[in-house]
């Protein structure tokens, strides 16, 4: 068990940390693009799984620009984003979330808590409201279209982050963001889609836990 009592600010990624939603998102990328070609959709899946933590906007732009090699794709991009959202949102409402959040919040009521995610911000707020856990995140819920680094810069600039700070994530990009801002980082592996997570954590001397149930 790992105690978080020493931290004043706790940052959580959402997919794979708070919610068991990575597989739902992965399937959504495939279903939203398969009409453009089976192999092309599978190539997007590969890119998605290699780039956990970044926004769907960037991933779908990569799909049209790099995989389909198109220049004029704005309308298709917007339609695909909307299709993706409609595919995943109801499934996300039913997905499992970390049951230890309630106890953790009760035991650390004075900490600042926030969500920092690559998910669409408005959609994420709706999901957390539906699950009745948004109240835990008193410092806000931050997502795309703005990037995690953008949000961290803004939060720092506006003195919203009280040190010491810990960031719980399940992707390489989460660690890169934490390192850039000198935040403590703990990798959460149970629901991650980062296949090489253990080697990455060991080589970078990153503490890892199975899930948030290992926190006190």
Q: How do you describe this structure in short?
A:
It contains nine helices and six strands; from the N terminus they run βαααααβαβαβαβαβ.
Q: Please give the radius of gyration in angstroms.
A: 17 Å
Amount of beta strand = 5-15%
Largest sheet: 6 strands, parallel
Helix-strand string: EHHHHHEHEHEHEHE
What oligomerization state is this entry in?
single chain
Mean pLDDT: 95
| Strand ordering within the main sheet | 3-2-1-4-5-6
Query: Kindly, what is the distance between the CA atoms of the first and last residues, rounded to a whole number of angstroms?
Result: 7 Å
Q: Which structural class is indicated by helix and strand composition? A: alpha/beta
Number of continuous helical runs: 9
| Helical content (DSSP H or I, runs of 4+) | 40-55%
- Count all strands and give the number: 6
Name some characteristics of this structure:
single chain; alpha/beta; 9 helices
What does this 3D model show about the protein?
The protein has 216 residues and is α/β, with parallel strands linked by helices. It is 46% helix and 14% strand. The chain is built from nine helices and six strands; from the N terminus they run βαααααβαβαβαβαβ. The chain has a six-stranded parallel sheet. Strand 4, helix 8 and strand 5 form a beta-alpha-beta unit. Helix 1 (22-33) packs antiparallel against helix 4 and helix 4 (74-93) runs parallel beside helix 6. It starts with 8 loop residues before the first strand and ends in a 7-residue tail after the last strand.
